[in-house]
Amino acid sequence: MINKKRRISVVILNYNGEKLLKKFLPSVIKYSDKTLSDIYVIDNDSQDGSIELLKDRFPDVKIIINSKNYGFAKGYNLGTINITSDYIVFLNNDVEVTSNWLTPMLNLMDNNKDIGTCQPKILSFNERNKFEYAGASGGYLDYLGYPFCRGRIFDFIENDENQYDDKIEIFWSSGACFMMRNELFKKNNGFDESFFAHMEEIDLCWRIQSEGYKNYCVPKSKVYHLGGGTLGYNSPTKTYLNFRNNLIMILKNESLASLIIKLPLRMIFDIVASFSFLIIKKSLFHFAAIYKAYFSFILRAPKILLNKKNYNRKNSMRINLIIPINYYLKGKKRFSDL
Predict the structure, then answer these.
(1) Cα separations (Å) of 13 from 10, 69, 102, 213?
(2) What one-character DSSP code corresponds to residue 2?
(3) Which of 100, 173, 324, 325 could disulfide-pair with 117, CB 3.0 to 4.6 Å?
(4) Residue 237 burial by CB count (10 A; 0-12/13-18/19+): exposed, middle or buried?
(5) Which of 214, 284, 216, 301 lies closest to 250, judged by CA?
(6) In sequence order, what are the beta bridge partners of 181?
(7) What is the mean pLDDT of each successive set of 10 residues along the chain, which is 338 residues long?
(8) CA 24 to CA 108: how far, in whole Å?
(9) 101: CB partners within 8 A, 6+ apart
(10) pLDDT at residue 258, rounded to an integer
């Protein structure tokens, strides 16, 4: 049993990330207040030198070893079972944190008991004046369930000119870096393990809203994310998981009445997206990944419907727009244009 020592546990999931740990872990150690936080690396059975590196170079970091690569969702669920701190910060192994990154999020959570998760402002590690794809300055969903961010819509990423520096309620906090109440995480059985990786944080943020909790972005806290550290942004596997898991998430969390309208519309837009991969990006693999995602989704749909819960789906942070129409037809590529 891991004893409760600090109010915050910073947990980093790792799989064959020796080079990433060597590069990014020093900032986490340097800027994480030792009176507030413990740092854990949850290792998904890495076959490189990750464990040896941690033992030799970072002896103060606590190591939790999973028996195999369980992916993001189950990897975190298993690794955090015995963690008893008030808050857990889920942090990718390719994130550089900055001075005082934990305190603004902690103060927000301590002073607002109805906030379940919060994220920092997430900037690009390689282009430090730009937002980063996975989270930017807070996540949202459109009418059809497409995710986007303050600072990033589809592949258009804005420069950070402090235009989104206000603390604000959002729909979802980024899995690259977010803080969550430990008790709430455990109460909701953590991430949906069927997702393996991608979209599970959005699903979790959606679920806790049914209990009256909110999600926030706290730009006073700032981190830099490399992105694609474990699975590259151009990977067909990432495309497959993103489309499949997004469809599963919608089926789980939308009302049945909404699904009758939204799923057929989604299918039309996703077919268009598949042909854009084929014709514009000339990628047969990404084209096929979308149809593979639909095939897997259809096979899983009966079980999901049988286990479907009657969530309270009202949320003021849902954007009642269809983002592909605004982005491609109306040319609205900035969050501030919506």
Answers:
(1) 10, 10, 18, 25
(2) P
(3) 173
(4) middle
(5) 301
(6) 87
(7) 74 97 98 96 96 97 97 96 97 97 98 98 97 97 97 96 97 98 98 93 95 96 85 80 96 93 96 92 92 97 89 71 96 96
(8) 26
(9) 31, 32, 120, 221, 222, 223
(10) 92
- For residue 233, the model assigns a pLDDT of 65
**Helices (DSSP H) in the chain: which residue ranges?**
18-31, 50-57, 71-79, 103-111, 182-187, 200-209, 236-253, 256-279, 284-306, 323-324
Q: What is the pTM of this model?
A: 0.94
Residue written as token pair 């926030």: 216
Report in angstroms the alpha-carbon separations of 194 from 132, 199, 215, 241, 249: 26, 11, 23, 11, 11
> Do strands 87-91 and 8-14 pair parallel, antiparallel, or not at all (unpaired)?
parallel
Q: How many CA atoms lie within 13 A of 170 on its CB side?
A: 33
- Residue 84: exposure state from Cβ atoms within 10 A (0-12, 13-18, ≥19): middle
Q: Decide: 146 and 242 in contact? Cβ < 8 Å.
A: no
| DSSP-derived 3-state class of residue 231 | coil
d(CA 180, CA 173): 9
Q: 324: which residues sit within 8 A by CB, 6+ positions away?
A: 146, 269, 272, 273
Proportion of the chain in helix, strand, coil states, percent, rounded to 5: 40, 20, 40
In the prediction, which pLDDT does 214 show? 97
